[in-house]
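Private note to self, pasted from the team thread so I don't lose it. Backbone tokens:
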């Protein structure tokens, strides 16, 4: 037998009981949810910037990054809402490599899922309670969402997950914003079908329960570029791409049409410095056409304390430098945030 059930892990309810949120934290989280919902529905004209490391690999470094981000937020709060990325699960194209803090709370040590569950809850709670900012994570594993459901204000569904039925159904039961990325193929109709599914209620099997959802009116699009059959990157952040998405949204008659543009991944070809140029081009497109301004509600940017990337075990570990995809460094990131604030 090759499928070994090694250890029974605590349920989300048990982990939440071990590490509960206070009434004050619950109220703070609800307020942050509403702040993002108001942006997506157009009640607020602020612009959302979802920014942070490709993967949260070290609590101390991630929290130092968010502390800096919180100081910048104070200076741009009239125009921008900054949403720290604390991505604790990392999808791997081949299944190899670092899979995130959930799997390895210490990237230098063996996987430890029990301590990983505790570590990811603690880092999200600490970030929310200390820095009072809405927190984003990716829902790589739908069955794990409820471990963090009371601390997350933004949930992303990745390009490899967006066609998956369980991701779509669980997204329909999340009360806050859920961003659905276009698949790696780039087919926008697949992404929009995922949004349709997430915005409707469903009945399905979830964690051994008969679950029923009401639908999530805040499910929306994330454009992250695509890869063609030759393995070449095909960006989808240009004006014409945004125009096409706006038109396709109108044909679907979906609630709260909204789009976040991911400036990295296949939009940049993982040339992380290109994120600066891409962000500025998207802002020009918003200025050029009112319908695009109404549609594009924010940007997603990969950024950390030190620019670039490093491999685990390949020389001395550099504090605050990504161990997965390359990221912008802090100086470039701070400068870019101020430029975005000036241009929105």
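Design output:
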């Amino acid at each position: 037998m090759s499928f070994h059930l090694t250890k029974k892990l605590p349920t989300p309810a048990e982990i939440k009981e071990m590490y509960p949120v206070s009434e004050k934290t619950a109220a703070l989280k609800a307020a942050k949810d509403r702040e993002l919902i108001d942006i997506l529905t157009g009640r607020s004209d602020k612009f959302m910037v979802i920014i942070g490391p490709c993967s949260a690999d070290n609590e101390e470094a991630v929290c130092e990054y968010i502390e800096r981000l919180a100081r910048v937020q104070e200076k741009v709060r009239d125009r921008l809402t900054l949403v720290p990325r604390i991505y604790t699960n990392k999808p791997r194209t081949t299944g190899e490599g670092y899979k995130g803090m959930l799997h390895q709370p210490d990237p230098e040590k063996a996987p430890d899922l029990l301590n990983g569950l505790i570590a990811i809850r603690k880092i999200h709670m600490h970030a929310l309670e200390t820095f009072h900012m809405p927190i984003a994570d990716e829902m790589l594993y739908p069955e794990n969402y409820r471990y963090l459901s009371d601390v997350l204000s933004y949930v992303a569904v990745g390009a490899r997950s967006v066609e998956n039925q369980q991701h779509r159904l669980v997204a329909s039961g999340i009360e806050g914003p859920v961003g659905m990325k276009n698949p790696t193929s780039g087919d926008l109709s697949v992404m929009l079908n995922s949004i349709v599914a997430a915005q409707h209620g469903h009945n399905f099997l979830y964690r051994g329960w008969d679950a029923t959802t009401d639908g999530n009116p805040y499910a929306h699009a994330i454009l992250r570029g695509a890869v063609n059959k030759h393995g070449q990157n095909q960006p989808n952040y240009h004006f014409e791409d945004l125009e096409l998405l706006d038109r396709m949204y109108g044909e679907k008659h979906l609630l709260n049409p909204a789009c976040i543009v991911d400036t990295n991944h296949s939009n940049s070809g993982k040339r992380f410095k290109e994120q600066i140029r891409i962000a500025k081009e998207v802002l020009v497109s918003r200025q050029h056409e009112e319908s695009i301004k109404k549609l594009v509600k924010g940007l997603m940017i990969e950024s950390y304390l030190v620019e670039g990337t490093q491999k685990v075990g390949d020389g001395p570990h550099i504090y605050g430098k990504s161990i997965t995809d390359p990221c912008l460094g802090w100086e470039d990131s701070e400068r870019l945030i101020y430029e975005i604030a000036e241009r929105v």
